[in-house]
Design a protein that fits this description.
By secondary structure, this protein is mainly alpha-helical. It is built from six helices and no strands. GO terms for molecular function: odorant binding; olfactory receptor activity.
Length: 152
């Protein structure tokens, strides 16, 4: 990957959200408001759009597309993020364990931390990626609804 390609990706990563939020904000600012009571503690875009007394179909279409996209992106990226974080934390614990002197740490804790690096990431990956499959997700949800005592 060239430096130019990295620059393009960084620019897209910065300007796409700015453009999307700016467009949604523009659509909201142009609306006349018929009220001023928000049923929230803080002000967000959609409750302000709901205060309008004109047609908000364009706002609804723009807002729905971006929320669906965010949901799909999160569904796609979340297993990768969880796996990466699990591996990173386990690696950090292992490196920290090697930096500490043996006499400073309880031997039981040292064994648990060293085994965590060897056991948790390999067990985590099939669970995280397997739950994305509908067949496995259905079995897990049925098991959780019934409870472990109902299986015996």
């Amino acid at each position: 990957m060239t430096f130019k390609w990295v620059q393009v990706l960084v620019l897209v990563a910065v300007f796409y959200p700015v453009f999307t939020i700016g467009f949604c904000l523009y659509l909201t600012v142009r609306l006349p408001l018929c009220g001023n009571k928000l049923n929230r503690i803080f002000c967000s875009n959609w409750p302000v759009v709901q205060l309008s007394c004109v047609d908000t179909t364009l706002n609804n279409i723009a807002g729905r597309r971006s929320s669906e996209f965010r949901g799909k992106a999160l569904q796609t990226c979340l297993p990768h993020i969880v796996s990466f974080m699990t591996y990173s934390i386990s690696l950090f614990l292992e490196v920290s364990l090697t930096r500490l002197e043996a006499g400073q740490l309880n031997p039981s804790i040292a064994v648990i931390l060293s085994l965590a690096y060897l056991i948790i990431p390999p067990l985590n990956n099939p669970i995280v990626y397997g739950l994305g499959l509908p067949q496995i997700k259905g079995v897990v949800l049925r098991f959780l609804k019934k409870g472990p005592a109902a299986e015996i």
